[in-house]
Amino acid sequence: FPLQIPELAKGTVLMRERSKVEETIQAMQRAGAGSLQVISDFDMTLTRFAHNGMRVPTTHNILDNRLLINEDCTRRIRELLNTYYPIEIDASRTAEEKQPLMVEWWTKVHELLIQQKIRKDMLARAVKESSAMLREGYKVFFDRLAEHQVPLLIFSAGIGDILEEVIRQNHVFHPNLHIISNYMDFDRTGVLQAFKGQLIHTFNKREGALLHAAHLRELQGRPNVLLLGDSLGDLTMADGVSQPQNILTIGFLNDQVEERKESYVNSFDIVLVKDETMDVPNAVLSYITSAGDAK
Ligand SMILES: Nc1ccn([C@@H]2O[C@H](COP(=O)(O)O)[C@@H](O)[C@H]2O)c(=O)n1
């Protein structure tokens, strides 16, 4: 039977193998919500890439607020962004080539942030004053997963404390949520002194998946995975899943579309081109979690 998901016919949707996508979704639907877990990147995947022609800030860029960092720090962080972001999305370099440069970028930015003596009690206000924005349809996405008790693992190379605050301020911080990210370490007076644990950047998520995600009890016994990302590095986020059965990957292609289209279509099952909505993930989830409903 052809799949009744009209959203897959949207002009923004590209698929290398439509029949394989359909078979995977049908298998996931038959297994039901109890077999499903969702693993998602955060910045520019659950958040929008742009709004009204302006870039939406990533969790790192939300810190660009005078409450937290001074003008000189802003300038230096922007210079680093202008140097390293084009490398991050460069279609002509491999992930292996990019790895050491990403470590360099994240390390330099985190050192600058630590020098600023950022105060924990200022973070919520900085998020409130920012133009952070989750994708259109985010509420349906978070609420449906919570309603069906499907665990949502957010795996982010951004800043965990900021990410949590964005989700909290949008009122979708449900108990099914698990987060792996770079968390700030504050001293006893609430001043940033370091970042906790091993650094997560865009191209080392596999290590994080094996180290952390693989041991999350709530994800055990759920062999079907819906994975959402905006970078080819995000495809390794499911590497910690033991004995996976069906993995459906959805990639948001936000930037450098023509240069990266081919590699995205070859790597993700579904590619969403400059689509600022959660329409397709929501439609797929609605189908999968509707076991027993009349089709
Ligand atoms: N100083 C930085 C470092 C990284 N970024 C962007 O954040 C994204 C990482 O977060 P994910 O939730 O997507 O894993 C990454 O794509 C970088 O472009 C930044 O803005 N500033």
Automatic annotation (TrEMBL):
The keyword Membrane does not apply. It catalyses: CMP + H2O = cytidine + phosphate; a ribonucleoside 5'-phosphate + H2O = a ribonucleoside + phosphate; N(7)-methyl-GMP + H2O = N(7)-methylguanosine + phosphate. The keyword DNA-binding does not apply. One of its GO terms (biological process) is nucleotide metabolic process. Keywords: Cytoplasm, Hydrolase, Magnesium, Metal-binding, Nucleotide metabolism, Nucleotide-binding. Its main location: cytoplasm. One of its GO terms (molecular function) is magnesium ion binding. It is found in: Cytoplasm. It is an enzyme of class 3 (hydrolase). Its EC number is 3.1.3.5. One of its GO terms (cellular component) is cytoplasm. SUPFAM superfamilies: HAD-like. It comes from the Eukaryota. Belongs to the pyrimidine 5'-nucleotidase family. Specifically hydrolyzes 7-methylguanosine monophosphate (m(7)GMP) to 7-methylguanosine and inorganic phosphate. The specific activity for m(7)GMP may protect cells against undesired salvage of m(7)GMP and its incorporation into nucleic acids. Also has weak activity for CMP. UMP and purine nucleotides are poor substrates. Monomer. PANTHER family: 5'-NUCLEOTIDASE (PTHR13045), 7-METHYLGUANOSINE PHOSPHATE-SPECIFIC 5'-NUCLEOTIDASE (PTHR13045:SF15). NCBIfam families: HAD-SF-IE. This is 5'-nucleotidase. The gene is NT5C3B.
